[in-house]
Amino acid sequence: MNQNDYCVFILTHGRADRVFTYRSLQKAGYTGRIYLVIDDEDEQADEYYRMYGDKVIQFNKRAIAPTFDEGDTFNDRRAIIYARHACFQIARDLGVKYFIQLDDDYTCFVYKKDPQFNYIEKPIRHLGKVFSLIFDFFLSIPALTVAMAQNGDFIGGENSTTGKRFYRRKAMNSFFCSTDRPFQFFG
Fold first, then answer.
1. CATH 3.90.550.10 corresponds to the domain 3-178
2. What secondary structure letter does DSSP report for 146?
3. Which of 1, 71, 127, 147 could form a disulfide with 135 if both were Cys (CB 3.0 to 4.6 A apart)?
4. Residue 159 bridge partners (DSSP)
5. Contact 3, 133 (CB under 8 A)
6. Is 30:126 a contact under the CB 8 Å cutoff?
7. What phi-psi label fits residue 53: left (phi over 0), alpha (psi between -120 and 50 degrees) or beta?
8. What is the C-alpha to C-alpha distance for residues 101 and 84, in angstroms, rounded to an integer?
């Protein structure tokens, strides 16, 4: 898939000065479209717009809430699940079929294994190509989403049993999505 066929949504709230993922994407060589998704209850909205301009997309939290089970009894809407659900419509509104959801606190994108499956930590320099390859994989299978591994998946290194059980970890924090394959997130 071509980098122009998808975009990255960084989901953020109340951290306009700490959107580490934005800089990490650039450092890793990603040159495609990036949008910061904020909600209308974010007190730092003006700061996001000042710092990121037209890359900021704001959605109405109260309006999205009835479209899924919030799984919450507090009624203060303090969860990322609202933004996760809003992204499908935001993508449609932008005319984008494929998108990636990332949290705002990624400090790096690295390879954790080499082609021989030895543990390494090597910075990714062409992240757009990596994203495109992941989308190619995603489109070749019937899954609703795929996700990248996180550092926590590699705790203990090669002697850990955690890294050997790839299917035990849930998809979280990074989601490769298609508007043709919408799904519900659960809080």
1. yes
2. B
3. 1
4. none
5. no
6. no
7. left
8. 7
Q: Record the tokens describing residue 119, joined without a space.
A: 């543990």
Closest CA to 81 of 148, 172, 181: 172
Predicted TM-score (pTM) of this structure:
0.88
**pLDDT by position in tens, the chain (length 187):** 888 899 999 999 999 999 999 999 999 999 999 999 999 999 999 999 999 999 999 999 989 877 766 666 666 666 778 899 999 999 999 999 999 999 999 999 998 888 888 888 899 999 999 999 999 999 999 999 998 876 655 555 555 565 555 555 555 578 999 999 998 876 6
Domain boundaries, the chain: 3-178
pLDDT of residue 62: 87
Half-sphere exposure of 183 (CA within 13 A, CB side): 12
pLDDT on residue 176: 96
Q: What is the DSSP string of 19-82?
A: -HHHHHHHHTT--SEEEEEEETT-TTHHHHHHHHGGGEEEE-HHHHGGGS----SS-S--STHH
C-alpha closest to that of 99 among 49, 142, 37, 14: 37
What span, in angstroms and rounded, lies between the C-alpha atoms of 187 and 185? 7
Quickly tell me which residue has 């990255």 as its tokens: 8
